[in-house]
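Contributing: when you submit paired examples, paste them exactly as shown. First protein:
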Amino acid sequence: MDFSLLGQGPQFQSVLAAFETGRAARKERDVTNALAMYASGDHEGGINALAPYDPVTAMKLRDDQAARQLTEQKRAVFREADPAKRMNAARETGDEEIITAVMAMGEADRAAAKEKTEAIGKTFFRLRTMPLQERGAELQRLAPSLIGLGMPREDVGRLIMEPSDAAIDEQIFSAQDMDKLIDQANKDRTFKAEREEKERDFELRRTDTEADNKRDDQRLGLEGQRVGLERQRVGLEGQRVQIARAAEARQGADGGMTPQQARQQSMALRKEFNSQPDVKNFNDVATSYDVISTLAKAKPSAANDLSLIFSYMKMLDPGSVVREGEFANAQNAAGIPDRIRNAYNKAVSGQMLNPKQRGEFTQGAANVYQARRGRYDQLAQQYQGYADSVGLPGADVIQPRPAPGGARGPTASQRPSLDQIFK
């Protein structure tokens, strides 16, 4: 709205203050309505309505909703009575190892595990009835016993720091789910041989299918690269002709290019440069590397480690469809090595990297950045020549990309392989 017609007098100030007050009231009303919508069960609608005003809170609500859905999905896996359906569902949630381990236990081991699970469940049922302010001290007293029953030390530590109702309930649910799983395993024992045979057959067929798909993808990828390079060559040739003609016109004109013509020519060259596939790919890699560089300097936390590993995965495989915060598997992150995928899934579960691992990821990101930079530099030099030929500043056409840390990156023989990370 244009208030210039009101001048700068008292009337202008009064109208402007009323406008700002109304805008603030509308914002507060819209935020309140969005939160009410979320609380009523319309989670997606509430998050979308809140995002324009408070994107940070909207993102947190979306992450919390995704985490609750994953937790419920995992609980449904343990409640599934049919062995085949339970195993198929476990592959989707990443719980296959837990179910496989319970199924492989002998009768005595399962009985011992059931006894420990019931003891943990009873302990947390008792804690749930205690006042919140007394739970921390009681958990600290029970910590050795809980660790002895098999609870991870870091989980016990987190509960001591934050013994909320939700955290206690989660432990109760986990104990109940594990107890049901052990009961199901006892019922399924007679079908173990058949299940293992089906799993072996499934794995063989999956491996064969993946190998066939990989070969097809490689063949199609090479063909696509050939076509892309040919199109790129034709485009560059056409651009060269256009630039040559512009240079000839400039040489024949007394006054040269006007500032407007120079800007138009710079914009055309910059658009052509940024549309090159190698430039696009490198820009994606550079964006992920910038995120990793920032996180490497930030205070270590589970959330920062999750974002760091996720950005590194996107550098390795920009085409992966796994979203940050969800578990990675062979379907949504097929191009990611198993060890990196396992490290990411541990970070999703809240496990932090140690300083050495964090440094190896940072160095690995620098190596990927430097390796992908070669083709970008070639194209940058080529377009720098085009810009120079018509008297345009190269900075108006090409975005400078410094080497990691401001220095030349390591050579291929100096770069650690991916297998060296988390060896």
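Second protein:
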Amino acid sequence: MTSSTHDQHAAHGPMQHGADDAPPAMGGGINAMAASATLHCLTGCAIGEILGLIIGTAIGLSNVATIALAIGLAFLFGYALSTLPLLRAGLGFFGALGIVLAADTLSIATMELVDNAVMAAIPGAMEAGLSNPVFWLAMMLALTAAFIAAYPVNRYLLSRGKGHALTHHYMHDAQPADWRRFIPSLGSGALAAVIVAFMLGGLVVAATSGLDTGGGHAAAPEDSRTVAVTMTDSLTFEPGEISVAPGETVRFVVTNAGEAVHEFLIGDEAAQAEFEAEMSGEDMDHDTRSGVSVDPGQTETFEYTFADTDEVILAGCHEPGHYEGGMVATIQVSD
């Protein structure tokens, strides 16, 4: 170890060891520091969870795998938002990451526990897709509860010289002169604005997506009808015939009672032929607005708004050999 390096460690040593002996004395008080620490974690958690749900839905992951991905990304983005200020202050990446892991893990874990518990407790929230306003309203409530739960945790840690107190020892007002000056410095107000804009943006997009009545997924009104469908390995849908009104939005609750993967895809004969052709071409990227693919023993829920004209359309399964084996249901659209 060089003489200069030894001197630097010696200079920092008393400050770091003193962190466990006395609570921090920062401007704005411990309450403001706790709120800022909680907002850093909350913003990262919100971004990570939504991104995880988007990715999971896009690539067709199961509900369990999607939730696991969302939680993993919540930790990743939560850590990232707390690492950025330390990098800006001059720390190396691994040094900053080590501090953040010690400072934020309990806070993020508390948020994820409360957030997912609230989402699970709200009827229909876990089954609602990103295009359903129910999901965004439930997420707003869950994140609010997560903030309320994590705030006292962060305040307690700060009062003991732990948590985000570990990061504040490295903060200073000097502006970095190198590439670090391009790292954004986000205050509590900016973080709160990011969360609000993120949630409201998702809610608005979800609400407006339900205005399209040309056939496909839509946010179902509270009084919409629910139709339960069971799929079996004998290549049947139960019921095999369904009647709906023109323009009606129906919530389908589709259960796979078999041991093989099954689909419930809605469309006319031409659409079913396209689905079958996609299957034959080993391209299973079906239009997700048309229905769901359900793993064995699982249940999936989706909403479908039918066209305003009388017609007879079909629901089919296009797993290999299933459609040609007769796994088809009839949907009569008429008054």
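If you have annotations for the second protein, write them as plain sentences, like these:
The chain has two domains: 3-209, 225-333.
The longest strand covers residues 225-232.
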